[in-house]
Amino acid sequence: MSVLFTSISENNPVKSGDAEALIQPLGLTIDPSESDDFQTLLAAVHDCAEGVAALPDYQPKSDQAKYPREDIRRPSKEEQVLGEAWAHRFLIRGNEEGPLARKSVSLKDVIAVAGVPQLMGSDIIPSWTPTTDATVVTRLLEAGADIHGTSTCENLCHSTSSYTSAQGVVENPHATGYSAGGSTSGGAALVAAELVDLTIGGDQGGSIRVPASLCGCVGLKPTHGRVPFTGVASGDAMNDHVGPLARTTMDIARCLDAISGYDGIDDRSLGSPKHGSTKFANTLQELPQRLDGLRIGVLKEGFEHDAVASTVRHSVSIAVKKFEDLGATVEEISLPDHLHGPAIWTIQQRIAGAQTLLGQNTGRRGLYMTEMERARLPWNDEGFQRAFPSTKNVIINGLYLMNRFPELYGKTANIGRQISDKYQSLFEQYDAIVMPTTPVVAPRHGKRGLPVESLQPSMGLTINTAIFNVTGHPALSIPVGFAPAQDDEHTMLPVGMQIVGGLWQEDKILRVGHAWETNYEWKKMHFTTDKN
């Protein structure tokens, strides 16, 4: 402490009363006899901070000599597709050979690419430009993939709709005017429209699986920590997941082999197997395309929730019955705690989301993207007024919950672990558990209006997805047919089935999904009523 005292600079800005002003909003005071000492201590820590701020940052080096970025640009109107599906266009060519050789990839616009401005679906702040590549970017290039751009995501990732991005609306590739889901909206639409082979998305409540379901592609939220989150904008480290979207489960498996494994940086991935050690794709190729001997549980609560449309329930039920034709044992199971998922997730996300937005979320060992924090903080009222209502709501809700329920975040972590343990017990009996991914097919786009009106189109879409962000279990969404839009029986839109596995058991859910899609053509399955 004496070193700090002697190092206080002459031009230190801390003045009398500053310490009192800092704690006054908390209803706290400083005894007058202690005021001078706390001013001295505050001045000392200011000088300490100035010294640390002057040090060079330490971020992974981007190998732009080997992987140069070509023609970085905001796409013109002529280049845009599916509304505003692209955030930035560019090309980074991967290795000549590899398991993903010449696969075309887009990246959700929260994944750092050195030299490429990142918008994060927002206009609250100007775009910021990373100086490093996310781990998944480096690994994709090493595996031979070509990255063609960043794809539009929803406004600060706070929506499962596809109209909230400040850059524009993303259209469902099956019907203009309908949602592509979110927050990995642009990427899911590009994959489903066959404009790229793969997208890497982020999922903190369903943001990979919801757009996969609504757009008709395959989306995987891996086990928490299997894929390093290094270089991806965080919401809540407990719920953070990054994973692939593709048109086939085999491509999902190839991509997961390429991007998974601890990277020496992200402590969320400490339990992940060594990078390059998994053989998900090889295993799928070698296994018979049947499911003899597997046990599949059909989650009662996932089907019988009031929010699940009858046509979606029927479509997924028909898909589930086909597992029996493939040799699996299929049984209905029940876990009432599944219904607590939305509430548990909401509390976690509101508190941690507010802390992250306000620059107060700390405590992980990993890469901190300091350029982004410098660009977006501190908040001011002008930026807050431009924020989409969902972002405003996160801040307001989070501050309220921290003030009124100070123990609640910790309690959600404890209860979330309890639910996870209960699921793990089920996975001792069943190889996979299935349910609808989303309760409805793609809804019409909403519009920005008053807060409740703006949030309405996203409400209820994550009733079956968010719980697995809380528990960390791997969850795969595959398309299993078409059902009519809620507002137009002549508009047919994809239905998604979610396949969930035990922790670190992606091999089982990939096998189940691959067998189903190999034996059945989902695009030929149209369900116009719940009786056909």
Automatic annotation (TrEMBL):
Domain annotation Amidase: ranges: 94-510
Domain of life (superkingdom): Eukaryota
Pfam family, one: Amidase
InterPro entries: Amidase, Amidase_dom, AS_sf
GO MF: catalytic activity
Protein name in the entry: Amidase domain-containing protein
Lineage, broadest ranks: Eukaryota, Fungi, Dikarya, Ascomycota, Pezizomycotina
